[in-house]
Amino acid sequence: MRTIVTILVTALVFISCENEKSNKKNQEHSEHPKEEVVPTKKKVLSPHTSAMAMIGDAHIHIDYSSPGVRSRIIFGGLLAYDMVWQAGAHNATWFETNKALTIDGKILPVGKYGFFTIPSKDEWTLIFNSNWDQHGKDEYDAKDDVLRFKVKPTISEEITEHLEYKVTKINDTEGSISLAWEKVAVKFNFQVNQ
User: Fold this and answer.
1) What does the pLDDT look like over 41-99, one tens digit per residue?
2) How far apart are CA 59 and CA 190, in angstroms?
3) What is the pLDDT of residue 13?
4) Percent of the chain residues topping a pLDDT of 70
5) Distance CA 189, CA 194 (A)
6) Up-side HSE of residue 172: CA atoms within 13 Å toward CB?
7) CB burial class (10 A; 0-12, 13-18, 19+) of residue 177?
8) How open is the CA angle 102-106-112, to the nearest 5 degrees?
């Protein structure tokens, strides 16, 4: 009988010890909750943005994706000279006006246009094209050009990290549009037709 009692007591002590170990583990887990892993959002390399302004009654809107320089040579490097560029990243940059404009002595009718450029070292060709809804310059065709003109680029010692457009009001009938990226900027004026 003593043997049975001894076995029972030993079994109870063993079970009690095992329960204590288990409770201790559970307590440790509850005191130190598992850290939740939250996935980090990947930084957008070419964020989608826009530039716009009212010039008198004209609403000028430019919609584009803004690539970064990221320590690269852009003009004459990443973007070859004398080749059509969609003037942004991803989809073609588009330009919209609700009033006809005069640019470089030529009329740009009311509408929405793809805005393209042909960068060169000494002179850029700026293009308003009727095909505004396209990926990059995949469907660019010069026969769809509505207006084309040339401007001289300006070079700066400071780097504009992300491509930036600005629409600036000069007065109620005149404005300017500029594009800057890396160390290069181009700018042109326009008049609002009444």
Assistant:
1) 677 889 999 999 999 999 999 999 999 999 999 999 999 999 999 999 999 999 999 99
2) 13
3) 47
4) 79
5) 16
6) 3
7) buried
8) 65
Q: How confident is the model at residue 39 (pLDDT cuts 50, 70, 90)?
A: low
Q: Which of 107, 129, 102, 133 is nearest to 116 (CA)?
A: 129
Residue 19 has pLDDT above 70, yes or no: no
pTM of the model: 0.77
Q: What is the DSSP string of the chain?
A: -HHHHHHHHHHHHHHHHHHHHHHHHHHHHHHSPPPP-PPPPPPPSS-EEEEEEEETTEEEEEEEE--B-TT--TBTTTB-TTS-B-SSSSBPPEEEESS-EEETTEEE-SEEEEEEEE--SS-EEEEEES--SSBTTTT--GGGEEEEEEE--EEEEEEEEEEEEEEEESSSSEEEEEEEEEEEEEEEEEEE--
Mean pLDDT over 155-172 rounds to 97
Strands 94-97 and 58-65: antiparallel
